[in-house]
Amino acid sequence: MAAKAEEYDSSEIRVLEGLEPVRLRPGMYIGSTGYDGLHHLIKEIADNSIDEAIAGYANTIEITILKDGGVRVDDNGRGIPVDIHPKTGKSTLETVLTVLHAGGKFGDGGYKVSSGLHGVGSSVVNALSTHMSAEVYRDGKTHHIEFDVGKPTSELQITKGTPKEHGTSITFYPDPTIFKETTTFDYTWVANYARHQAYLTKGILITVQDERTNAKESFYFEGGIKSYVKRLNQGKDLLADDIFYVEKQVNDAGVEIALQYNDTFSETMKPFANNVLTPDGGMHVVGFRTGLTRTVNDYARKNGLLKEKEDNLTGDDIKEGLTAVILVKLPDPQFEGQTKNKLGNPEVRGYVDKVMTEYFGYYLEENPAIAKKIVGKATLAARARKAARAARDNVIRKGAFEGLNLPSKLADCSSRTRSDCELFIVEGNSAAGSAKEGRNPQIQAILPLRGKVLNTERARLDKMLANQELVSLIKGLGVGIGDQFNLDGLRYDKIIFMTDADVDGLHIATLLMTFFFRYMPQVIEAGHVYLAKPPLFGLIKGTSANRKIDYLYDEVALEKKLSEKIAERKKAGTKIDESQERFKQAGYTAQQRFKGLGEMDAKQLWETTMDPENRILVKVHVEDAEKADAVFTKLMGDQVELRKNFIQAGAASVNLDDLDF
Fold first, then answer.
1. Which of 502, 525, 555, 657 is catalytic?
2. Residue pLDDT, tens place only, 311-364
3. Which CATH number is 512's domain given?
4. Same domain, 42 and 183
5. pLDDT tens digit string along 592-643?
6. In the chain, what is the straight-line distance between the N-terminal and C-terminal CA atoms, in Å?
7. 492 and 370 in one domain?
8. Are residues 175 and 41 both part of a single domain?
9. Are 182 and 39 in contact (CB under 8 A)?
10. Domain region containing 366
11. Which of 74, 211, 258, 618 could form a disulfide with 62 if both were Cys (CB 3.0 to 4.6 A apart)?
12. 278: closest CA among 343, 194, 351, 226?
């Protein structure tokens, strides 16, 4: 007999009103409630000011991080309307800030082009803030209203006179009960956001200031995305100084493209739709790649740069060394989700393809010397691709979890559950021997490196696959390489660089990071790459039979430990002989400095660097891909002068023992 059903009626159905859904499920609206979500609040408010600028109504925007933890965004746009809204019966200003999907981004009366597609930004920020205030300047009056947790605390206040003729000022304070990880805004993030928006909107002045530190920067780029490409290529050797640029209107969409080639082997692509970065690409990127590939091949065939029997150049061949910024402006962009990572409008593919095919074709015809260099670089890439394919067939491991074709030097772990497994990439056979002996063999694998790996900043895939150390690493990881890369094949949850805490160790770690950043960035982005931090010092107490060691990881920690121990002994009445060495004054029998991992035995290496309960791991993540790209170019590229200047600028303030990743 079936169990009696519990009473289930309308009282069980909860109806969320107003901004309640936002506070209940904030991640649906801003992606997360961590660092990224917190800073997304600024973007939601500032994007509205950017929309005013795109529409031609504003030319200055100010973003201020306040001393008391809030953020204020000011612009000199038209000012949010303040008249009574016919549907809500409240001022339009209050409506925009308290009603989801209310804004000037629907229909024909607001913005033809807008980054805030969903029209929920301002109200979402209001819902997730302990307090928000808004001021609108228009018609010679100042209109002011305040909110707590998304609800108005006063009527709209109107006074005569304004600090400026027209504009909007929004101030908000993130709610710590929502943003439990942090409510502290990062000035660098804000400055990078402002810089990008200034690149994407020609003629707009964006100022960022931080009242906590008095830091202040202003961004204005008359060249727009041409200036952006120039910055992205800074420090790189160029095929030509000239930057291809086109801006055209196709039906109701605007297409703007800037590109330039350098002599590196990687591509830098920045696609935007209505000033919103779309890191996962979309139809505008598909159209760009199609048009670029067709146009270069057509030019090469027409001018005899490709022989009749030669295959067409592929998109991968042609994108080598390419730096491009694509900006499309649409009246109705179809983004995937509120975080807008990908553009889905199918018509945009044809628009961008048409513009690239026509105008880049003109550019190649008018600049034959540049065209010849572009085709020549792509032809070399094609040859390297074919050589790499042959080499790759020998190193790509099939059936990763079955252990087929694993490198002989790899001491693998026995577990086949990826989430449990760790791979230690260890500098030198001596340290690798200690690591193998001291590890937990069930979950920890050891891959020793012989010397310094190849600098992949200046190497194509075919050359890289001729390097035995990197081949062993690729085999061990199980993800493949190049067009066969597949993150699902990764055999280890943590990939840990374990190198000496000296200059050579740091160099090896940098070489490894260069390899992952250039050839396997997805592994870094997914949070799988770590740096182990071995100790620099051991303070020894007792005899060999009953020895205890306190491990310290830098000079600062060492001095703090010694000072504390000396103070404790003095307080206990112990007479201190200050002529003795510091470690003896502190009550230790010896002090050891570890110059390398090989100086530690298996037990010490386990206790200090490999034991999950005690070790220090630093996760490698990329907060600013453009800055990371510039750093790798500077440190690992061909231009010695850039590296020399970098070293000279920072040498005086660096203590190698204090270096942290």
1. 502
2. 999 999 999 999 999 999 998 888 875 556 899 999 999 999 999 999 999 999
3. 3.40.50.670
4. yes
5. 888 788 888 899 999 999 999 999 999 988 765 666 666 666 666 655 565 5
6. 65
7. no
8. yes
9. no
10. 225-392
11. 74
12. 343
* Catalytic site includes residue 502: yes
| 7 inside domain | no
Are 387 and 327 within one domain?
yes
Query: pLDDT (tens digit, 9 = 90+) per residue, 132-168?
Result: 999 999 999 999 999 999 999 988 999 999 988 999 9
Which listed residue (135, 462, 500, 607) is catalytic?
500
How many domains are there within the chain? Answer: 3
Question: In terms of pLDDT, which residue wins out, 189 or 114?
Answer: 189
Catalytic residue among 74, 256, 427, 469: 427
DSSP character at residue 313: P
**382 and 432 fall within a common domain:** no
Q: How far is CA 431 from CA 157, 474, 492, 508, 660, in A?
A: 71, 21, 21, 14, 21
The 3-class SS string of 158-188 reads: EEECCCCCCEEEEEEEECCCCCCCCCCCCHH
**Residue 630 · residue 234 · CB < 8 Å:** yes
Residue 303 lies in a domain: yes
Q: Is 317 a catalytic residue?
A: no
In order of 419, 510, 513, 531, 620, the CA distances from 494 in angstroms are: 8, 17, 14, 10, 11
pTM to 2 decimal places: 0.72
Tell me whether residue 570 is in a domain: no
CATH value at residue 372: 3.30.230.10
**Catalytic choice (504, 525, 555, 638):** 504
Question: Is 256 a residue whose pLDDT tops 50?
Answer: yes
Find the largest Cα–Cα distance for the chain: 93
488 assigned to active site? no
Are 301 and 191 contained in the same domain? no
Strands 422-427 and 444-449, by their bridges, are parallel
> Is 543 inside any structural domain?
no
Q: Are residues 373 and 404 in the same domain?
A: no
Strand partners, 232: none
CATH classification of the domain holding 125 = 3.30.565.10
Any idea which residue has 């206040």 for tokens?
Answer: 157
Q: Which two tokens stand for residue 117?
A: 């597609």
Closest of 204, 145, 212 to residue 172, by C-alpha: 145
Are the C-beta atoms of residues 258 and 244 closer than 8 Å to each other? yes
Tell me the C-alpha distance between 447 and 439, whole Å.
12
Compute and round to an integer the Cα radius of gyration of the chain. Answer: 30
Spatial CB neighbours of 343, under 8 Å, sequence gap ≥ 6: 271, 273, 278, 281, 282, 283, 284, 328, 333, 334, 335
> Residues 283-310, buried b or exposed e (16+ Cβ, 10 A)?
bbbbbbbbbbbbbbbebbeeeebbeeee
Task: Please identify, among 175, 196, 219, the residue that sits at the C-terminal boundary of a domain.
Answer: 219
Residue 500 a catalytic site member: yes
Same structural domain for residues 232 and 344?
A: yes
